[in-house]
Amino acid sequence: MMTFQEIKKSLLTALWFMFLTFPIMVIKVNTIEKTIEWRWWRMAGIGLGIFFLSFLWRYLIRRKEAGKKKAEIAGEETMPLAQRLLSNPRFYMPGMVATIVMVVAFPFVFSLYQTNIMITALIYVVVGLGLNIVVGLAGLLDLGYVAFYAVGAYSYALLNVHYGVTFWMALPIGAALGFLFGILLGFPVLRLRGDYLAIVTLGFGEIIRLVLENWNAFSFGPSGIANIPKPGLFGLDLNLHQSTIFIYFLMIGLALMTIFVVRRLQDSRIGRAWIALREDEVACQAMGIDKTRTKLSAFALGATWAGMGGVVFAAKTTFINPTSFTIWESIIILCVVVLGGMGSILGVIVGALILILLPEYLRTFSEFRMLIFGVILVMMMVFRPGGIISDVRRTYKFEGLGRKAKDRSE
Amino acid sequence: MDYFLELFLGGLTRGSIYALIALGYTMVYGIIELINFAHGEIYMIGAFTGLIVISVLTLLGWNTVAIIVIASLVAMIYSAAYGFTIEKIAYKPLRGSQRLSALISAIGMSLFLQNYVLLAQTSNFLPFPNLVPDFKFMQPFENIVRSTEIVIYVITALVMVFLTFLIKFTRMGKAMRAVAQDRDMAMLVGVDVNRVISFTFIIGSSIAALGGVLVSSHIGQVNYYVGFIAGIKAFVAAVLGGIGSMPGAVLGSLVLGWTESFFTGYISSDYEDVFAFIFLVLILIFRPAGILGRSDTDKV
Q1: Band (B45; pLDDT cuts 50, 70, 90)
Q2: What is the spatial distance between Cα A109 and Cα A101, in angstroms, rounded to a whole number?
Q3: CB 3.0-4.6 Å disulfide test: which of A304, A314, B245, B271 passes with A179?
Q4: Predicted confidence (pLDDT) per residue in A73-112, tens digit
């Protein structure tokens, strides 16, 4: 493995990256004091880092290619480890029990701070599962997803300010408004091809944010809305601790409902239509699937969950302003789905927990958070497009004839 | 009338700037059908590299003309190197896989580059010196159009002439057209597809860097986020003109520049970015192929 050729290649790569990162990483000009700071140690670090990373990179590329060839010969995809463990009842039942115990005990064992982080993670689970319908199942890249999240949050905040609407009333209203906006925005753009759709949804997301920022009379502008009430429980007086625990269990309930609905949707007629559409649009239309309607339903259903998540977000933070709803928020949610595994429910849950909990506990790395998200998006696409826990494709094999018949689901 | 002329020339400047970025978008899209989200970031890196070179040389006490030329050249070389490397890392391994994957990879790259510059340099707006001297012959028009703007027009025009020549009359240009038409067929007749794609990224990126240096010098400041909005606007321009078509990209940029300029001048400046996005949505809905683009059907 460690032949001379390999080392030479890595050395050249390291030199190339040292050259590439030279001006931006090494030189820092102080325009006020008119001094230049040369940070040579950074260059050495990059050279060394890239030298070793390039071995890893080539090893992973080789492995990926070997894997592809093997899959071609075997003619089917092998089940990933996580799925095998899950489908085995010996592991499934104890795992399930342990998870339930942990989930129930969590807010009583850990501090308020940790419960709050967990609530954030659960909001991302719900919203991520919603985006999973759009991106994972239907294969529509929606970069303006956070717009619907904003719709939900603002509908609760504004209705509360003007009409005193409570959380429990706002939850269905937020969901309904999310759905409505999904249809309104989706209808004109869903005829477009995949990559245009990404840009247009990005545009819509920004439009909604900019409107919220500039239309002061309607949305209170950049200063946002404060003092949004937390959800009530039958008029009981809850202190801060109790209400946080209450929101936690509320989010668990919402997450469970989402999982249930998405699972049922996935196996339903429309869910299979989404997956088929993702795989091949033309063939799908030839089979008699109404393209626009199917896409629109995915888009609107995804938006519904974002709307609901937004309502909870507003109630949890008790303060919202347009900066919570930038395009990068959409990309974090996208990252959750991509890391976990597009189309896989368990994957999205794991992805959300990793991406939201890890940065909170690794505080020293928090400034690198977005940088790492970028790396994750690229690396996952290059090496593991299916995500950590990839979706298992249901395959129906057609046996009996001599030739290999590999049919995808539907 | 003066106000109209001012807006007209302002729109022309905007349009030229968009054109310099949009050309790279459209070239890459024409060849590998990928929206290179990181293109705006390449433009930003070009501007930053230019600024660093300018600052260093100014402190060393070089004369202005040499500084401009060297800074632009270094910025172009570095941006080209970044474009080349990005393609090798984030796009090449994904050739042949689903379009969605490449697009997500491009978004990741864009996010990475933004934060890379943010962490390695600064999150503040840095002042960018205006390097273009005030020309003598421009004095009568000074209140309408600045010297920097004249330089931007001239350079944009030169770049367009150069690109047209490159694509129409050189061997590499022919190879690029061949790859854009049919990659497999081009490969069969002996075109080195990898080289053509790398070349396209290099050319597109260096043009973006040129734009980055010029625009920053015109606006007077730069930060790590400038590439994002500029990239989106340039993409709107490329789509407006018909993505994949080079004259289309220029035409689209000019149309977008003028409409934006007149809109903000006569109606409202609060919603400038909203306007560009609404424009994009309307084009895509009513004429997805753009002004000069061909509409094509999906191949099975």
Answers
A1: very high
A2: 11
A3: A304
A4: 654 455 556 666 666 667 777 878 888 888 777 777 778 8
Q: Do A198 and B271 touch (CB under 8 A)?
A: no
CA proximity to A123, closest of A307, A300, A256, A312: A312
Cβ-in-10-Å burial (0-12, 13-18, 19+) of A332 comes to buried
What string of DSSP letters covers A209-271?
HHHHHH-HHHH-GGG-B--PPPPPSTT----HHHHHHHHHHHHHHHHHHHHHHHHHHHHSHHH
| Mean pLDDT across B139-158 | 79
Report the CATH number of the B2-286 domain.
Answer: 1.10.3470
Residue B104 has its nearest CB partner, among A24, A42, A338, at A338
Alpha carbons A279 and A406: distance in angstroms, whole number: 14
Give the start-to-end residue ranges of the domains of chain A: 4-74, 115-396
Cβ B35–A199 below 8 Å, yes or no?
yes
Q: How does the average pLDDT of chain B come out, rounded?
A: 84
Q: Which fold has domain A115-396?
A: ABC transporter involved in vitamin B12 uptake, BtuC (1.10.3470)
Q: Are B178 and B186 in contact (CB under 8 A)?
A: yes
Which residue type occupies B212? G
Of B35, B55, B105, the CB nearest to A29: B55
ipTM value for the complex: 0.86
Rounded to an integer, the average pLDDT of B29-37 is 84
* Residues A101-110: tens digit of each pLDDT: 887 777 777 7
Q: Which two tokens stand for residue A117?
A: 């982080």
Cβ A194–B99 below 8 Å, yes or no? yes
Would you say residue B44 has pLDDT above 70?
yes
User: Residue ranges per domain, chain B?
Assistant: 2-286
Count other C-beta atoms under 10 Å from residue B138's C-beta: 15
Chain B residues whose CB is inside 8 A of the A188 CB are 281, 285
Which of A339, A335, A278, A346 has its CA nearest to residue A81? A346
Strands (E), A64-203: none
How far is the CA of B240 from the CAs of A57, A254, B162, B236, B289, in angstroms?
39, 43, 22, 6, 8
**pLDDT value at residue B142:** 65
Q: Looking at residues B283-290, what average pLDDT do you find?
A: 74
Q: What pLDDT is attached to residue B275?
A: 77
